[in-house]
Each structure stands twice: as C-alpha cells, then as structure tokens.
# Entry
Amino acid sequence: MNVKDLLNLDGKIILVTGGAGLYGKCIVEGLAEAGGTVITASRNLENGQKVAADFRSRGYDVYALKVDQADHDSVLTLKEEIKKHFGRLDVFVNNSVARPMKGYDAPIENFAESMRVNATGMMDIVREMGNLMGESGGGSIINISSMMGMYGPDLSNYEGTDMGTPSPDYFFHRAGIINLTRYLARVLADKKIRVNSVSPGGFFNHQPERFLENYCKKVPVGRMANNDDIKGVMVLLASDAGAYINGENILMDGGMHA
# Structure
C-alpha cells in the first residue's frame, strides 16, 4: 500500500480528551488534517465547542462533547453519545490530565484528588472507550505521557526563576501510564486494539526567559516543542502506517535525553 494511503485517516472516528489544551489542540489538528473525524472531550464544553468551531471553519471535521473522566456516569454518557452520533470509535487519544497539586509541599489532599482523576478516572475512561473500540472491530489507543514519566526532574531548569518545584503527582501518573500501556497492549490484543504511549518534552508557552535559556541549551535541536512537533507521531500511531507498533512508548524531546 502507498505510504500516503497508510497515513490517511479518512473515515476514522477519533476521540481526543483534553483537546482544548496546548498539546491537545495540536493533536486534534494533526489528526483532522490527516482526514479523521475528531471529537474533543473535556469538562469545559464551551471551550471545546470553540475549538471545534474554529477547526470546522477551516474545513476540518471536528466536534466537541463533554466528559468528566472522574465521574463514571459522565464517561458512560460520552460513550453512548459517540455510539449514537458516530456509530463507533476507531482511535482514542488519552490526553486529559488534571493538575491539582502545585508543588512538593502542596496539601496531601491534592495528591488524593490527582489520583481520583488521573489514575482511577483515567483507567475508567480507557476501559470504557476500549470496550467501545472492541465493539467497533478494534483500533488504536494512544496514551499521552511525558518525558517526566521517564526521568526525574532536572531542577537546574528552574534556576533563576520563581516557577517552584515540579509537582510529584505528575511524575507519578506519567510514569504509571507508560507501564499501563504495556499492560493494555497485552490485555486488549484479543480485541484487535493496539496501545502505545507518547512522552513529549516541554512545549513552548512563553515561559520565563531564564527557564527557556536553561532548558533549550540542553536540547540538541535547540528549542522547546512547537505546534507541529507531535502531529506526525500521532498520525503514525493512529493510522495503518503504525499497524505493527504496539506496546511502545515514544520519547519526543528533541534529543534532550540522547
């Protein structure tokens, strides 16, 4: 098959949670550009609808639905709405993450809330969307992790800034999702579902100048990630071009950890 056909997502129904966020918008855009019908879902339906409307105005097939992944009934409602309006699910990008903990010394109750959303809630939505995908004949689950799930924090990046210490819950959950990916690749194989994860590095978002200087000098390509950097790997894993990639975690950090 021609490689352009392998990468084509025409006819694919794709769910992206957290599609209105920094990386989320890039993911939605890339999958839509490749021809997919993309549904963005998050707690803030209004933001999702604005994102979807913007993409539709540019000719892309993007829609918005509401979900609170920490609420089982909300997850089930999303599942039924996808079945009702789109008929099936071919790709699920598990991208949503809550950030209730603001640093090492944050109240322990914030860690518990993070577990409720980012561990229990995340497992709930992955399992329900995996079941829907299985009913549809299989597909691809792509978990969004982080390079921070693979390595400890480089505190020198924060020298000379007031950004504080990174939050421990984020490192905990992003690491866990990588090994959960390997688990799911085995467990969901009989449903013809491939499961992979992507671990992006830092995304440029007008961080303090000192942070950018500290960070970028450690990256061989000399910069933080931009809007286009994650698109290619997402289309690869969502499409038939990635049909033999399963149970993998792809580090996307510009060579920072080479």
